[in-house]
Amino acid sequence: MNNVANFVDVVTAFDIDADSKEEAIKAVITKLDAAGKLLDREKFQADVFAREAELPTYIGFGFGLPHSQSDYVKDATIGIGKLTHPVEWNDGKKADFIFLIAVPYGGKENTHLKILANLSRLLMHDDFRDKLRSTSETEVRELLMASQNPHRSE
């Protein structure tokens, strides 16, 4: 199975000092925009918040998984945000880590579903979450690649 880091770009935003879910998501979106992954930051942000309003994306263990297929995304990308402290995501649940999935609308091969399935599967494992929380910003992509290739030499 292809792992997520092999078929999408990864952009990181660590040490986010946010007081709300919205501020945290905006910080990750700003990094995606700075990396040239978006066609229109404001419109993509509106798409993400519209999706979040339909059904909040807290998945447990302190992780938020906001996502959107959008006409305002250039390249399928995962924005990974690590917060300096947890923020309320919904219903009293707090998140301090974000995987923001940005996929062009109408993308081929259900890319957004593959990314969601892959990340959800990884985040179910305590050891992966523990490694992720202790990994530096520069090591995140390597962790994602290694996480599904047990024969990869370290």
CATH superfamily: Mannitol-specific EII, Chain A
Q: Per CATH, what is the topology?
A: Mannitol-specific EII, Chain A
Helix content range: 25-40%
- Can you give the mean pLDDT? 88
Termini Cα gap = 20 Å
Topology pattern, helix = H, strand = E: HEHHEEEEEHHH
Number of strands: 6
Helical stretch tally? 6
> How big a fraction of the residues is strand?
25-35%
What is the CATH architecture annotation?
A: 3-Layer(aba) Sandwich
Instruction: Return the CATH class.
Output: Alpha Beta
Structural class: alpha/beta
How many structural domains does the protein architecture include? 1
The value of Rg in angstroms is 14 Å
By oligomeric state, this entry counts as single chain
The largest β sheet comes out as: 6 strands, mixed
Tell me about this structure:
The protein is α/β, with parallel strands linked by helices and 154 residues long. It has a single domain, classed as Mannitol-specific EII, Chain A, CATH 3.40.930. 40% of the residues lie in helices and 28% in strands. Strands 1, 2, 3, 4, 5 and 6 form a 6-stranded mixed sheet that branches. The longest helix is centred in the N-terminal third of the chain and has 14 residues, at 21-34. Mean pLDDT is 88; it is low at 149-154.
